[in-house]
Amino acid sequence: MWRLLRRTPSRHPQTPDMLQDFLRMSTEQALFRFEGAECRERWSLFSDAEYGGRSTSSLEQATSSTAVWSGRTEVEIDEENAAISTESGRRATKAGWCAMRADVSHDGWDLSDFHGIRMRLRPDDRRYILNIRTFGILGGEDVDIFQAIVPPAPTPGEWCELRMPFSAFHLTSRGYIQANQNRTMHLGNLRHIGLLLADHTTGDFQLELEEIEAFRFGEDEMARDGGVQEMLRNNEDMGYNAA
Predict the structure, then answer these.
(1) CB of 193 closer than 8 Å to CB of 107
(2) What pLDDT, on a 0 to 100 scale, did the predictor assign at position 140?
(3) What pLDDT, on the 0 to 100 scale, is given for residue 46?
(4) DSSP class per residue in 101-112
(5) What average pLDDT does the segment 130-146 reach?
(6) Which residues in 207-238 are b (16+ Cβ under 10 Å) and which e?
(7) Cβ neighbourhood burial of 60 (10 Å; 0-12, 13-18, 19+)
(8) pLDDT, tens digit, for every residue of 77-124?
(9) Residue 185: what pLDDT?
(10) Mean pLDDT score of the chain, rounded to an integer?
(11) 54: burial class by Cβ within 10 Å (0-12, 13-18, 19+)?
(12) 112: exposed, middle or buried (C-beta count within 10 Å: 0-12, 13-18, 19+)?
């Protein structure tokens, strides 16, 4: 669910931070605010360059409250230097992706009382994926990976707010959605949060980020908004039972 913002969102200058946090704490929990090096340095960057590709990215401070993840994806791969799979013995043949990921395993978050993830961002027209990794078992791995496709922005290049209910996330393995979706995220046992760009496109990208939060829909929305009510039903059907 997108909402277009007229300008970069900011805290009200006449309201003390402590009061603003108190007013918001029942419906929102800030996970990341991109306000400086302390937040920015928590994110690790990855790309197909590790496997013989040519894609690159960086995460730089843009303003006092925002950071820009930008770079370039290249779908062509250097066949001579392509990594060899330990499972199949074949060289990598696919490229064109970049990712950023933060380890949250020691943050102590429990998002069970929330309805989803909200981001304040200024996107371009590329197709991004939001990843959440939780501790679990799938195919011998120590994490379950859930992914949600970020829908196209209403106006690329403008500041927007995006709310994604937990039911938008699907269990995946090696980038593929699993047929069996009877597993839900362990919202009290998160390991990583990340963003992925892998839209099979060669070209530049730029995504400016201000904040990532867990959110609850407001009481008025839950009572009156049919779209919100449908999202809550989908959450419940998937096993996310926050009241």
Answers:
(1) no
(2) 47
(3) 96
(4) EEE-TTS----T
(5) 76
(6) bbbbbbbbbbbeeeeeeeeeebeebbeebeeb
(7) exposed
(8) 877 777 676 655 667 777 899 999 999 999 999 999 999 999 999 999
(9) 87
(10) 85
(11) middle
(12) middle
| Element spanning 10, H or E | none
What three-state secondary structure class fits 233? Answer: helix
Q: Name beta bridge partners: 119.
A: 162, 212
User: What pLDDT is stored for residue 172 in this prediction?
Assistant: 85
Q: What is the phi/psi pair of residue 234, to 5°?
A: -65, -40
CB atoms within 10 A of CB 192: 16
Partnered with residue 28 across adjacent β-strands are 215
User: What pLDDT, on the 0 to 100 scale, is given for residue 12?
Assistant: 45
3-state secondary structure (DSSP) of residue 50: helix
Which backbone phi and psi does 34 adopt, to 5 degrees? -85, 60
The residues, any chain, with a CB within 8 Å of residue 57's CB and separated by 6 or more, are 45, 47, 69, 70, 71, 72, 98, 100, 205
- Taking a C-beta distance cutoff of 8 angstroms, is the pair 189, 134 a contact? yes
Question: Rg of the chain over CA atoms, in angstroms?
Answer: 19
pTM of the model: 0.84
Beta strands at 56-61 and 116-122: parallel, antiparallel or unpaired: unpaired
Token reading at 171: 């269990």
Q: Is 56 helix (H, G, I), strand (E, B) or coil?
A: strand
Question: Tokens 């937040």, residue?
Answer: 39
| Distance set, CA 148 to CA 51, 60, 151 (Å) | 24, 24, 9
The whole-angstrom separation of Cα 10 and Cα 13 is: 8
Q: For residue 138, which amino acid is it?
A: L
Which residues in 138-152 are b (16+ Cβ under 10 Å) and which e?
A: eeeeebbbbbbebee
